[in-house]
Write a structure and sequence with these properties.
Helix content is about 70%, strand content about 5%. The chain has one domain. It is globular, with a radius of gyration of 23 Å. It has about 400 residues and is mainly α.
Length: about 400
């Protein structure tokens, strides 16, 4: 049984890993100095170094808070599911408070380098809806898993794993509604028509396109994709609308539509399902130290176990994310057939956010959810020779 389940897991993971990016691409293997100036590279390296160090220290402080919560939990003598939910919510709030200085420090660094001119109050207040929604969802999940643990005993993870995947999927579906108060419809009707045409070309059907007021928080450029089914939408940052050319905007939006075209949201749900049952099993083993997840004092242990699992899987989840982002880049190139726009877009995105063009391997494994700017430029430049070769083959035949 275990062997068959393992084989099934590996087959499913292999299918989720597959993309449409050709495996025989001849990339130009550029030196970063050929794409970005020495000044830009040195500035981005200094900028990113600080953020990486800040993240590492913040993570260590967060782990210390969780370990302290595990140690202190029995002393609160809370009872029942309500006690466990209260203890879990309190731990998450304490975790947020402990990380707050590092959030402010990161924002100070962004202001220092001109990536953002937002005041500190905006950074604290602006995302309140996501924070409250996330805390409510976490509290509900804790209550659900405690009920399962009390009724099913040590085998609760067999049901809890799929339930966790279901909760995660529901959150993906509901995420656009949490963003709704800060979104506005795209008022440029010509651009909206071009985006609808791109959506038709990429076979994704009707997709809402909205604008996010991002300049209150950052000067970086970006667009995002959220939701599934009736809630799917492309969100363009107002900073992108102000500073990108029309071809660059088309490339940016086509990239986001590429995520829809390649079903990346559903693939993410697939990964969540694959990881949920082993993860729930690991949590069930860890919480036995405090009598199982049905006991309130075991809730901080579960949160610590989930955090350790998340950190351990970070290189793998980042690798999957980079692979899907690369596929979206390729689908954008295939649709727009404009590698020059993709390359200029990549440059502007990197310069606006001070992204390191070619980070060291450890940073790539631990922090990079997207291909490096240099990787993306190489992919864009590989498109033209490939198109020419295809034309030569047709002429030769």
């Amino acid at each position: 049984m275990i062997g068959a389940a393992t084989v099934g897991w590996l087959v499913a993971a292999t299918l989720l890993w597959r993309t449409v990016v050709p495996g025989d691409l001849e990339l130009p293997h550029l030196d970063e100095s050929a794409v970005f100036s020495d000044e830009a590279r040195e500035r981005s390296e200094r900028y990113e170094w600080f953020h990486r160090a800040n993240w590492v220290i913040a993570t260590l402080v967060g782990l210390a808070v969780l370990v302290s919560s595990v140690w202190l939990a029995p002393r609160f003598r809370l009872r029942g599911i309500a006690g466990g939910v209260a203890l879990g919510a309190g731990t998450l709030v304490a975790l947020w408070v402990a990380r707050l200085p590092f959030v402010l420090l990161a924002h100070w660094w962004r202001r220092r380098y001109g990536v953002s001119d937002a005041d500190y109050a905006t950074i604290l207040v602006d995302p309140w809806l996501e924070r409250v929604g996330g805390l409510v969802a976490a509290a509900a999940a804790i209550g659900l898993f405690m009920v399962l643990a009390r009724r099913l005993g040590e085998r609760w993870w067999l049901v809890g794993g799929p339930a966790f995947a279901l909760v995660g999927s529901a959150f993906l579906l509901a995420q656009p509604f949490l963003l709704a108060p800060r979104l506005e419809p795209l008022r440029d009707q010509q651009l909206a028509a071009e985006i609808r045409d791109l959506a038709q070309q990429q076979g994704v059907g009707e997709v809402d396109v909205e604008v996010k007021d991002a300049r209150r928080r950052t000067r970086a450029l970006n667009a995002e994709f959220y939701g599934v089914g009736p809630t799917k939408r492309v969100v363009i940052w107002d900073t992108s609308l102000e500073r990108l050319t029309r071809p660059e905007l088309r490339a940016l939006v086509s990239h986001e539509l590429g995520h829809v075209q390649a079903h990346h949201v559903w693939k993410s749900v697939g990964w969540l399902v694959l990881l949920a049952i082993p993860g729930a099993y690991a949590v069930s083993r860890a919480t036995r130290l405090r009598g199982g997840l049905g006991q309130p004092a075991a809730v901080p242990v579960a949160l610590l176990a989930l955090t350790v699992l998340e950190l351990g899987l970070l290189p793998a989840t980042n690798a999957v994310s980079r692979r899907y982002e690369r596929e979206a880049d390729w689908l954008s190139l295939r649709t727009t057939r404009d590698p020059a726009a993709v390359e200029s877009l990549t440059r502007k995105l990197a310069l606006a956010s001070l992204a390191d063009p070619d980070p060291p391997l450890f940073a790539k494994l631990a922090f990079e959810t997207h291909p490096t700017p240099l990787d993306r430029v190489e992919l864009a430049r590989s498109w033209r020779p490939r198109s020419l070769r295809a034309g030569e083959l047709r002429e030769g035949s």
